[in-house]
Design brief:
Elements lengths: L7 H21 L5 H5 L1 H11 L14 E4 L5 H10 L6 H5 L29 H20 L13 E5 L1 H5 L1 H12 L5 E7 L2 E2 L2 E2 L8 H8 L2 E6 L13 H13 L5 E6 L22 H11 L10 H32 L1 H11 L15 E2 H12 L6 E5 L3 H4 L8 E2 L11 E2 L4 E3 L4 H14 L3 E7 L7 H10 L4 E5 L17 H6 L5 E3 L4 H14 L4 E5 L3 E2 L22 E4 L8 E5 L3 H14 L4 E5 L3 H5 L3 H7 L7 E4 L8 H4 L4 E3 L10 H7 L4 H15 L1
Parallel strand pairs: 1-2, 2-3, 3-7, 6-7, 9-12, 9-13, 10-11, 13-14, 14-16, 15-16, 19-20, 19-21, 21-22
Antiparallel strand pairs: 4-5, 8-17, 18-20
The chain binds thiamine diphosphate and magnesium ion (MG).
Length: 692
């Protein structure tokens, strides 16, 4: 027998959520009412009976997390935020999908309170939820290492997905890793309604989803509200679902999936089960029928406010009790764990301690420098953790000597560790890695980075874009950043990737020129905290330039923080030409400037590791670095020129790479493709006459 208490108010609230979904979409003239109507009971059950939620504090550390991976059904979540008194009112529901409303077409993190994650690109939410579940485990081990039994840092992550999410590769990638990681705090509810936009899923999706998840290593349950294809026998058995959720909570060595067979838009009188309800308003007649079936007046937004008040009061009381119990445990935890409490306060304040940053004087690849920085940070920033998509050695993402984040039975001789470890192993799953990093960083009590070859940033682009949209400070470590990769050839040599990444609004693309710029790049990535950062690093060694203030030395690497800076001034201080370069091309550019200087052309070299940060500087600074009257400007970057013209101007030129690379030694390719001091100097000489 289920222990679920379910009153007539509960049922009325669920039915209210259904008619609100129908009315809101009808008023907007567009939207996704179907699964919002049929899943109203599921969402209500989670918010009102299952999850720990404090309506007074959307940032409560003890809260359970909810991710609506089927983001198109945003009105499903908005109705629960309204019914629960979680920051939305009826006016917000009425303003669905209108400009400036708190109820945009898909849930947006940072815009609407109690939305934990921006969703909409199908499958991504599953990877975010997996990341949150991983973060919860590490947070517990980091902040409450001695916890025996429950910790204040424990919480569950609940995720609703549909057919769409589970067709997407990213969900499978993440689900596979979730099982390997034995994420007992993750519960996925799969709305198996056999419907996507093109209709019956049998045309494209015929696998046994539960068998797949069982094979991955998940705990699986099946709750059949629909009996086969028979809509007539449909029974929305909320207690059965509740019991399955309770059972899922009890399974702590594996993530849980509950396959819930539903009929989309049930109980609409004629359209239930139809794909037409997925993404269009139902029409007045159908809504009249729905309201009649549910016993509502035939008026838009006919809400029983007294009932809503009681439902809100229930959730408030439940939240208050949960909060009070948690607050007492939290206070005890703070007393018993003063160091961890200080760490938590610092991390919540988004501050770094006084970090000792490494200083480099030997030539090295920028990826190796990044690895050295991470190892230096390991003891200083306990909140920092990360790993790679099976390229740890290549990406230099491992902090030396740190344990792996693995269940006890998954550690290997090569990778010792445990459930509270620090080195992440994403496997070869770049897209899921991106989503998981976002999920971890959304949880907010640790900072996570992840690496792969830069060329495979394509595979994770969806997650990178969502990180930028959410302003989540994930750090993407992308090594092997150009034709300098060499013999692996064009499949592994990024060409258009710098431009492609710079095209993502809000993503900072940082390509340091040497080891000391790498250290500053990490400092900036970890201190800014309001946007994702891609660190673009070389495979091959590059010179570590002298910055000791001596004659002819380069400027301090701190200039990287401004995105671009005068690395070496022209002799005499009045440049006739400016060469702007990034990463491994900067040292070539310095040599080119030497040639030009020797021939009597005073040449300034600008290191521009991050266009985005440079563009944020005041115009006075930008004009100092790139004086408008010096028009002989050349950019040098081993990638397509797209994006450089705004810096070099009409009279300038770009030394770039407009075609794929080839399988050959990196130095040979640099030579062949014109990335030599001689060629760069020649291009500068070509632009000099026209530039005046
Ligand atoms: C990555 C991605 N591809 C395509 C879409 C467009 N799209 C939105 S919903 C949807 C169908 C989703 O079906 P399902 O998850 O079963 O939702 P239901 O119709 O049952 O509500 C599609 C293709 C998307 N949002 N994201
Ligand atoms: Mg569906």
């Amino acid at each position: 027998m289920s222990t679920l208490q379910w009153t007539s108010d509960d049922q009325r609230a669920v039915d209210t959520a259904r008619i609100l979904a129908a009315d809101a979409v009808q008023k907007a003239g567009n939207g996704h009412p179907g699964s919002a109507i049929s899943l109203a009971g599921v969402a209500y059950l989670l918010y009102q009976k299952v999850m720990n939620v404090d309506p007074l504090d959307d940032k409560w550390l003890g809260r359970d997390r909810f991710v609506l991976s089927s983001g198109h059904a945003s009105i499903l979540q908005y109705c629960q935020l309204y019914l629960g008194g979680l920051g939305l009112e009826l006016d917000d529901i009425m303003a669905l999908r209108t400009a400036g409303s708190l109820t945009p077409g898909h849930p947006e993190y940072g815009h609407t309170k109690f939305i934990e994650c921006t969703t909409g690109p199908l499958g991504a939410g599953v990877s975010n939820a997996v990341g949150m579940a991983m973060a919860a485990r590490r947070q517990r081990h980091l902040y409450d290492p001695d916890a025996a039994g429950a910790s204040v840092f424990d919480h569950f992550v609940y995720c609703i997905t549909g057919d769409g999410c589970l067709q997407e590769g990213v969900a499978s990638e993440a689900a596979s890793l979730a099982a390997t990681q034995r994420l007992g705090n993750l519960v996925l509810i799969y709305d198996d309604n056999n419907i996507t936009i093109e209709g019956d899923t049998k045309i494209a999706f015929t696998e046994d989803v539960l068998a797949r998840f069982a094979a991955l290593g998940w705990h699986t349950q099946h709750v059949a509200w629909r009996k086969g294809d028979d809509k007539a026998g449909y029974a929305e058995d909320i207690p059965a679902l509740y019991d399955a959720i309770v059972a899922a909570q009890g399974v702590t060595d594996r993530p849980s999936i509950i396959k819930l067979d539903t009929v989309i838009a049930w109980p609409c009188p004629t359209m239930a089960g139809s794909e037409k309800t997925h993404g269009s308003a139902l029409g007045a007649a159908e809504i009249t029928g729905l309201k009649a079936a549910l016993g509502f007046d035939d008026q838009p937004f006919a809400v029983d406010e007294a009932m809503v008040g009681r439902v809100r009061a229930n959730l408030a009381a439940r939240g208050k009790a949960a909060r009070a119990a948690w607050d007492a445990r939290y206070a005890a935890w703070r007393t018993a764990n003063a160091d961890q409490a200080a760490l938590l306060d610092r991390v919540l304040a988004k501050k770094l301690p006084d970090v000792v940053w490494p200083v480099f004087d030997k030539d090295t690849s920028t990826r190796a420098a990044s690895g050295a920085v991470l190892s230096a940070l390991a003891p200083q920033l306990p909140e920092l953790w990360g790993g790679s998509a099976d390229l740890a050695g290549s990406n230099d993402t491992t902090m030396k000597g740190e344990p792996s984040f693995l269940p006890d039975d998954r550690v290997s001789a090569e990778w010792p560790g445990g459930p509270g470890g620090r080195t992440l192993h994403f496997g070869i799953r770049e897209h899921a890695m991106g989503g998981i990093l976002n999920g971890i960083n959304l949880e907010g009590l640790t900072k996570a980075y992840g690496g792969t070859f830069f060329v495979f940033s394509d595979y994770m682009r969806g997650a990178v874009r969502l990180a930028a949209l959410m302003k989540v400070p994930s750090v993407f470590v992308w090594t092997h950043d150009s034709i300098g990769v060499g013999e692996d050839g064009p499949t592994h040599q990024p060409v258009e990737h710098l431009a492609a990444c710079r095209a993502v609004p809000g993503l900072a693309v940082v390509r340091p020129m040497d080891a000391n710029e790498v250290a500053v790049a990490w400092r900036e990535a970890l201190t800014r905290g309001d946007a994702p950062v891609g660190l673009i690093l070389t495979r091959q060694n590059v010179p570590t330039v002298l910055r000791d203030g001596s004659d002819g030395a380069c400027a301090p690497a701190d200039g990287l923080a401004k995105g671009g800076y005068v690395l070496r001034e022209a002799a005499g201080g009045a440049p006739k030409a400016i060469i702007i370069a990034t990463g491994s091309e900067v040292s070539i550019t310095l040599a080119a400037a030497d040639l030009l200087e020797a021939q009597g052309t005073p040449t300034r070299v600008v290191s521009m590791p991050c266009q985005e940060w440079f563009d944020q500087q005041p115009i006075e600074y930008r004009n100092q670095v790139l004086p408008p009257d010096v028009c002989a400007r050349v950019s040098v970057e081993a990638g397509i020129a797209m994006g450089w013209h705004k810096y070099v101007g009409d009279k300038g030129a770009c030394v770039s790479l407009e075609h794929f690379g080839a399988s050959a030694p990196g130095p040979w390719l640099f030579q062949q493709c014109g990335f030599t001091p001689e060629h760069v100097a020649e291009v500068v000489r070509e632009v000099l006459p026209a530039a005046g």
